[in-house]
Amino acid sequence: MESPTILELIWSARWPILYGLGTTVLISALAIAGGTVIGVGLGLVLAYGNLAWRFAGRLYTDFVRGTPVFVLVLASYYILTTIGLDLSPFQAGVLALTVFCSSHVGEITRGALQTIPRGQTEAAKAIGLGFGQTFRYVLAPQALRLGLPAWINTAAEMVKASTLLSVIGVAELLLRTQEVISRAFHSLEFYLLAGALYFAINYAIERFGSYVERRVATD
After folding, report:
1. Can you tell me the mean pLDDT for 124-128?
2. Can you give the pLDDT at residue 108?
3. Mean pLDDT calculated for residue range 76-104
4. Where are the domains of the chain?
5. Which of 33, 131, 132, 173 allows an S-S link to 24, with CB 3.0 to 4.6 Å?
6. Looking at residue 117, what is its pLDDT?
7. Do 156 and 209 contact (CB within 8 A), yes or no?
8. Crossing angle for the helix pair 51-65 and 14-48, nearest 10 degrees?
């Protein structure tokens, strides 16, 4: 009896691999979206908040950025349980990555906002714009152009960091690939397949970022 080819093995394992791929995409999307929303707010606090708010924001940012993602993942799943917050592995993983992403986006937003000349904010006040209108029409478009490349890198890092969630039992792409390997015994081929899929996700993020960059450059 002939041994199955690698294509036949991949086809037979398509559903676990696709399930893991879908889980990785969902986790990454939730973490990037949540981290971006929180991070933009954090960046505003770091750039324009009063002394107490800036201190709290800086403390949060430096603490999270200085903590390995692996530790954040374990803390979200095991430590939060001890204080009565019983999260599923999926929820804990999304929380950890969201917190980590928010700290990076906060720094990106702060840096982009502080690069914009202060005279533009003062000019907006002079013509009667409130802070919300100033941010929407003056600051945000410029900050988006300045911070987009760094945001793309952060989004790609979240996809790669999602591989750490296998340690708490999240059935993302890496864990599903390892489960398939334990049955098929073709580690090189399936790890190459997983690597290609991770590359495809990050390439899609990079293309999306390039599209947004072209759009905002013409606005």
Report:
1. 82
2. 96
3. 92
4. 6-218
5. 173
6. 86
7. no
8. 150
